[in-house]
Structures are given as C-alpha cells and as structure tokens.
Amino acid sequence: MRPVYKASCPPAPDEIVSPKPDVFEIKRYNWNASLVSITRGCPYNCSWCNIPIYQGREIRFRPIDVVVQDISRLSGKEFYITDDTIMLNRASNHKYLMEVCEHIKDFNVSMFLSCSPAVSSNPKFLDKLARAGTKNLYMVFASDTISKMFYIGNKSIWDKCINLVKTIEDYGIHFFGSFSLGFDFAGEDQFDLILKFCEKANVKTAEFFIATPFPNTPFWHQVKEENRLILPVDWKKYNCANVVFRPNLLTEEKLLNGFLYLWTEFYKNADYNEFLSTFPSLHQKADIFLKTHQIQNAKA
After folding, report:
1. How far is residue 169's CA from residue 156's CA, in Å, rounded to a whole number?
2. Residue 19: beta bridge partners?
C-alpha cells in the first residue's frame, strides 16, 4: 500500500488554484447550479465534520478578486457557495462575504449559501446577501451547541430559530432546513419535534438525514471506540440515508423508520411549485418530470 502524503502546512489562500468546471460532470446530477469554493479551514471541531481535520483549524479566505473572477466565469446564473464555514457568526467572515457581495451585486445571479443555526441575523448583513442575489439559505441542524439545545426542545433556542427563519424570509431569502437524525443527544421524540418546528416556523423546504460517522471525524472515533459501528463496514451505505452505527437513545429500526416518516409526512401535502420556487433549474426539471408522468399515465 502506498503511503499517504500530507503537506507540512495548509496552502496559503492565494496558492489555491481555481477549479476547472469542465471536469465536473454536472449532467450526471439533477441540479444545474455551479459550485464555488471561497475558503478553507474551520476553527471549530463539530463531531461529524472533517473540515478542520483536512483543511486546518484556521479559516483562510481566497483573494476576493479571484473569487469574483470565478463567479463571473460561471456558465449559468445559479451557483452554490460550497463552504459551510463562510456563514459563521464572526466579524472577519461577515466583512469578507459582504465585500464579495458588493462586487457581484450587479451580476444578476442566484446564490445559494449554507449555514448553521448560529448564523447572524444582522439586518445590514442579510440585506447585503439579498442584494447580491442570495435566493436560498441552507441551514443545517447537526451536532453544534445550538442544534443540541434545539433537539432537546430548549424554548429560548426554539424562539430564536423560529424568529431567524422569519427574518431570513423577510429579506426575500428562501429558508431551506436540513435536519440531522440519530445523534446521541436526540431520542425518539426528535421526529415529531422537527415536524412541530417546521409547522411553527412555516418551513416550506426541508431535508432530513441520518447522522453518519464519516472516517476520521470525532464522531467516527467515538462510535468505533464504543463498538457501535455496524460491521462489516459497507461504504455504499455511508450516504446519510442508512443507519451505519448503533444509536444511543433509540434502535436502528426506529431511526430508519423515523427518517422515512419525516420525508413522507413533511411532503405529503406539499406544493412543489412553492418549495422549488427559488431553484429554477430543479423547478424546470420537476415540470418536465410531472408532465412526462402525466402523459404516461394518460396512455396507460
């Protein structure tokens, strides 16, 4: 077996080259938005994340002129900033992202950002994002401190998150909730708790994923040391849609059933025109799929 090579230190931001978009086979995926990466590293150590492990514990911002150039060269008008860390509630992050927004505000693009529940609700910050074309804010409830408080039903955290959803939507930015299932602090009530929150906050678009101990993360080492990994390891199941470890507060079967229940229950009366309204490329594909399905049913 060949050795694993590792740099003695992370590369400087201006040494990070822009990716070649033609290498990414976008036609193989059901989403036509382009991808843009603008930072490296993270100062935190969330249990299921490997960013600080492989990219270092310091956030490094790519030069703004290079980022703006990357965005200007995109083939389409939709793009996703892939960095989970860019929306951290830190002054340096805000300053950097607001400068990027100032440069691209006239590009007429649709931008998709991701964050945690710790994101800032500062009006100036959100207004800057909206004016730059931010159409969706993807918020992940996983294993950070606020998320843990959310899953145990802490009232002040719930009130904060409900108000946060409303504030984001008030700026014309669509809220997209991503809810983890099965972390050690979440019990059998987590499924109905999530549905209750979505109803109270009027969440229109959501996804649900099973906590997955990806290799070399703190979560991986924990469940491995506690002999809770389901063996033999089947890497095909490490996709956040399968139970690959023994949960702490519920059975494997209840976790999987709860996952399926949430997807079914949340979307059973959903209007796809509403929850895909800010995803033009997906909306178009949904239209084509439904029309094709209707034609096939008519012929049957």
Report:
1. 20
2. none
CB 47 within 8 A of CB 217: yes
Strands in the chain per DSSP E = 34-36, 39-40, 60-61, 78-81, 110-115, 134-141, 174-181, 205-210
Q: Which two tokens stand for residue 45?
A: 């150590």
**Which residues in 231-247 are b (16+ Cβ under 10 Å) and which e?**
eeeeeeeeebebbbbbb
The number of distinct structural domains making up the chain is 1
Is 48 among the domain residues? yes
Global pTM? Answer: 0.87
Mean pLDDT for 50-66 is 91
By residue range, what is the domain housing residue 188? 13-269
Which of 170, 176, 193 has its CA nearest to residue 249? 193
Q: Give the three-class secondary structure for 66.
A: helix
Does residue 294 sit within a domain?
Answer: no
Backbone angles phi, psi at 160, to 5 degrees: -60, -45
Is there a contact between 18 and 66 (Cβ–Cβ < 8 Å)? Answer: yes
Contact 39, 56 (CB under 8 A): no
SS3 of the chain: helix, strand, coil, percent, to 5: 45, 15, 45
- Residue with more model confidence, 39 or 282: 39
Q: In what order do the strands lie in the sheet with 78-81?
A: 34-36, 78-81, 110-115, 134-141, 174-181, 205-210
Residue 285, in any domain of the structure: no
